[in-house]
UniProtKB/TrEMBL annotation:
Catalytic activity as recorded in UniProt: Cleavage of a beta-linked Asp residue from the N-terminus of a polypeptide
One of the record's GO molecular function terms: asparaginase activity
Name of this protein: beta-aspartyl-peptidase
Marked site: Cleavage: 143-144
Organism name: Trifolium subterraneum
Length: 274
């Protein structure tokens, strides 16, 4: 998976370029799930681990647990010898500026509420392209990263990595490391979510896609549409998904979602809007 590369690129909200806490620090989280045996690993509250998704993978492969957080996760990182850096490495000038904006507006910013001129924003009656609920929003807010993959045998996996929400409280844990919320994979599909973590957690969004496929017999895109429509109350989010048949689907209930798709035969596609 390429989640590591996205973590290393400061343009995304994960690893270097992560959203900042209310204190201007970085607390990262990530998870990974292998759908074949429903194996999973997750980490939260990382402050020095260069590639959180790799540590999530080590939790899955090399620890007796599914989820490690804060000091315990940092200690495990050192035991496993993963690359660590100072917390400042993750902090970019763009994000320092965005945190200032969030503090001035007394709000928490996340990429999914990006109102853009000419686009309806989730039907929320946005007054001006740069405001949401009367608060200014940045159009440059970076995005959480995630990946859903299927191999030629139909084995699905998914991973998600994030810095969370800009101006979040210290210790806040979002959906991205929570198996079933931000990430899920089964023998049927793999799903990775992004958007307002609290809404994704309430909707157990990623697991729900697999559940409606399993229990209602829906196809992948139908399942994604169903979940976006019925499981996202009062929150904006999106997800990418693959099925064991090699299908690819996505859905979101807001302006757009940065996404891409690539297959072994060379097909590549990227998109932002519907
Ligand atoms: N879902 C992430 C969180 O709430 C944020 C995002 O996707 O941008 O932590």
């Amino acid at each position: 998976m390429k989640v590591r590369e996205l973590e290393t690129d400061p343009l995304f909200n994960s690893g270097r370029g992560s959203a900042l806490t209310e204190k201007g620090t970085v607390e990262m989280e990530a998870s990974i799930m292998d759908g074949t045996k429903r194996r999973c690993g997750a980490v939260s509250g990382l402050t020095t681990v260069k590639n959180p998704v790799s540590l999530a993978r080590l939790v899955m492969d090399k620890s007796p647990h599914s989820y490690l957080a804060f000091e315990g996760a940092e200690k495990f990182a050192r035991q496993q010898g993963v690359e660590v850096v100072d917390n400042e490495y993750f902090i970019t000038p763009d994000n320092v500026g965005m945190l200032k904006l969030a503090k001035e507006a007394n709000t928490i910013l996340f990429d999914y509420r990006i109102p853009t001129s000419g686009f309806e924003t989730c039907g929320q009656g946005v007054e001006s392209p740069m405001k949401m609920n009367g608060l200014p929003m940045s159009i440059y807010a970076p995005e959480t990263v995630g990946c859903a993959v299927v191999d030629r045998e139909g084995r699905c996996a998914a991973a998600t990595s994030t810095g969370g929400l800009m101006n979040k409280m210290i210790g806040r844990i979002g959906d991205s490391p929570l198996i079933g919320a931000g990430t899920y994979a089964s023998d049927i599909c793999g799903v990775s979510c992004t958007g307002e973590g609290e809404a994704i957690i309430r909707g157990t969004l990623a697991r729900e896609v697999s559940a409606v496929m399993e229990y209602k017999g829906l196809g992948l895109q139908e399942a994604v549409d169903f979940v976006i429509k019925h499981r996202l109350d009062e929150g904006y989010a999106g997800l990418i998904a693959v099925s064991n048949k090699g299908e690819v689907a996505y859905g979101f209930n807001c302006n757009g979602m940065f996404r891409g798709c690539a297959s072994e035969d060379g097909f590549m596609e990227v998109g932002i809007w519907e």
